[in-house]
Amino acid sequence: DIQMTQSPSSLSASVGDRVTITCRASQGIRNDLAWYQQKPGKAPKRLIYAASTLQSGVPSRFSGSGSGTEFTLTISSLQPEDFATYFCLQHNSYPLTFGGGTKVEI
Amino acid sequence: EVQLVESGGGLVQPGGSLRLSCAASGFTFSDHYMDWVRHVPGKGLEWVGRSRNKADGYTTEYAASVKGRFTVSRDHSKNSLYLQMNSLKTEDTAVYYCTRDVPYHPLDWGQGTLVTVSS
Q: Which residues of A touch B63 (CB under 8 A)?
């Protein structure tokens, strides 16, 4: 199985901050990676797919980069509605595996 | 508008069975891979299983933790996805989500249904 190591597991930030979250794959996954945002009691929402393609309707302050084993989600200027938990997902091979999540708090 | 509505969750004893349903609408059901993903309370997300689309023969894949116990199936007359869960364990306690994949990973998610395995 491909292990997805996500860091940090939590972070404290303020409105307007630049936030960076990293996922590292245990083996190369090309760009078969997506990023999701989840708020308490809600289903996850896809933000980024193919490592760097912004999902339609998602604000441009979200961006993704990386390929192979190292991937990054960046929020350029944190907004109040961005406080949530973020997950990466690799879909290069079975089983699909998620990162452990990053909780972004005030 | 894509809609995925899960049902069938509840409390079940260890060793018991449960069948989850996902009613799909707003898209051509046969065109899409469909997944089940679960969220263990206080922990992360875990992919459970998949039904491929018509073009790929509706074949299935499973996580090792559920293989041999869980079965993913479809009813095309009802545009529904199912997860038959047998020999349930306490560690299967989670919120179970049905997802529509675009193209090969989840885009749309249902609201989830809670399964609690406890004596």
A: 95
Q: Is B63 within 8 Å of A95 when comparing Cβ atoms? A: yes
What is the C-alpha separation between A82 and A60, in angstroms, rounded? 13
CA atoms within 13 A on the CB side of A19: 28
Residue A96 is given by DSSP the state: P
What pLDDT shows up at residue B73? 97
The residue-averaged pLDDT of B51-73 equals 97
Q: B19-56: string of b/e by CB count within 10 Å (b at 16+)?
A: ebbbbbeebebeebbbbbbbbeeeebbbbbbbbbbeee
Q: What tokens were used for B76?
A: 């095309």
| Nearest-angstrom CA–CA distance, B78 and B57 | 18
CA B68/CA B66 separation, integer angstroms: 6
Cα–Cα–Cα angle for B93, A45, B86, nearest 5°?
25
Segment among A44-58, B37-51, B66-80 with least mean pLDDT: B37-51
**Average per-residue pLDDT in chain A?**
96
Identity of residue A6: Q
pLDDT tens-digit readout, B7-17:
999 999 999 99
Residue B15 Cα, gap to closest chain A Cα (Å)? 24
Low-confidence stretches of chain A (pLDDT < 70) are: none
